[in-house]
Amino acid sequence: MTLDVFNYFSPPNFNSMFTNTITAIAVMLMLLLMFNIYLRLVVFKAYNKLVKNRVDFSPKQMMNSKLLEEEVIPKYPELADDIRSFSKKINMSIYLGSVMLAIILYLGWTLLTNK
After folding, report:
1. 82 and 46 in contact (C-beta within 8 Å)?
2. Please, what's the largest Cα pairwise distance for the chain?
3. CA–CA separation, 88 vs 63, rounded Å?
4. Cβ(79)–Cβ(55) under 8 Å?
5. What is the mean pLDDT of residues 62-68?
6. Where do the domains of the chain lie?
7. pTM value > 0.85
8. What is the Cα–Cα distance from 35 to 111, expressed in whole angstroms?
9. Distance, CA of 72 to CA of 54 (rounded, Å)
10. For the chain, what percent of residues have pLDDT higher than 90?
11. Between the CA atoms of 40, 43, 45 and 46, what dihedral angle is there, to the nearest 10 degrees?
């Protein structure tokens, strides 16, 4: 039995790279879709609870935890945990969605430039 050293270090087959990249993009798009559905279920449940209690705050306050703690939480101390949870979930969803989109765009760019 001999080791085929030269085939081990040869460049990968383009067709397999193309297939792997397309598969990775498809998987990332499916993950993005599932993530969107998850967020609709989780975030909207928290959002409905805040709407029922007439909690009012701006997107600027929601994205900035310092403003949230200084301006919103003192107005609604009984809902402080719900407000923090909602803000954390929204911020997490924006971050993860942005990262997934960046990965998809990078894979697409790689696919287009390496034809």
Report:
1. yes
2. 77
3. 9
4. yes
5. 90
6. 14-113
7. no
8. 24
9. 12
10. 21
11. -170
Given a contact cutoff of 8 angstroms between Cβ atoms, the answer to whether 53 and 79 are in contact is yes
- Cα separation of 48 and 52, whole Å? 6
| Spatial distance between the Cα atoms of 88 and 25, rounded to a whole number of angstroms | 28
Per-residue confidence (pLDDT) for residue 12, from 0 to 100: 58
**29 within 8 A of 23, measured Cβ to Cβ:** no
Residue position matching structure tokens 């809902």: 79
User: What is the spatial distance between Cα 109 and Cα 49, in angstroms, rounded to a whole number?
Assistant: 42
CA dihedral for 85, 87, 89, 91, sign (positive or negative): negative
What φ, ψ does residue 3 adopt, rounded to 5°?
-90, 135
Q: Read off the tokens for 80.
A: 């402080």
Single-letter amino acid, residue 34: M
Sign, Cα dihedral of 67, 73, 76, 80: positive
**Distance from CA of residue 108 to its chain's centroid?**
18
pLDDT for 16: 75
